Amino acid sequence: MYKLFVGGLPFSTTDDEMKDVFAAHGTVASAVVVKDRDTGRSKGFGFVEFENDEEGKAAEKALNGSDMGGRSITVNEARPKEDRPRRDFGGDNNRRSW
Asked: Which of 43-47, 87-91, 93-97 has the highest mean pLDDT?
């Protein structure tokens, strides 16, 4: 399996629409647009999984920077969550600066 991160999606993009775009480059195992858990609206990115690494790499090369619904999308190999740095928003709610 070869998993791609797809960013810059139009907020109206559905899972099926994204799958259709990527299916032109190979066998898509899954396509998911990530949605906000509270509102159910798209976050503007998603993931596409190909059954075959070569097809996934070809889709990445062909579609990165391409136009989808009037927006230029970013397509690259998805990284595992544990490889990303943790965000620290300084969320100590007990200390106020005012």
From this structure: 43-47
Give the integer Cα–Cα distance in Å for 95 and 70: 44
| CATH H-level, domain 2-80: superfamily | RRM (RNA recognition motif) domain (3.30.70.330)
Is residue 20's pLDDT more than 80?
yes
Whether 83 has a pLDDT exceeding 90, the answer reads no
Structural domain boundaries of the chain? 2-80
Q: Determine the Cα–Cα distance for residues 76 and 43; give it in Å rounded to an integer.
A: 17
| Amino acid at the residue 57 | K
Residue 39 predicted with pLDDT over 70? yes
CA distance 31 to 2: 12
pLDDT value, residue 92: 57
For 30, counting Cβ atoms within 10 Å of its Cβ (0-12 exposed, 13-18 middle, 19+ buried), the class is middle
Burial class (CB in 10 A: 0-12, 13-18, 19+), 78: middle
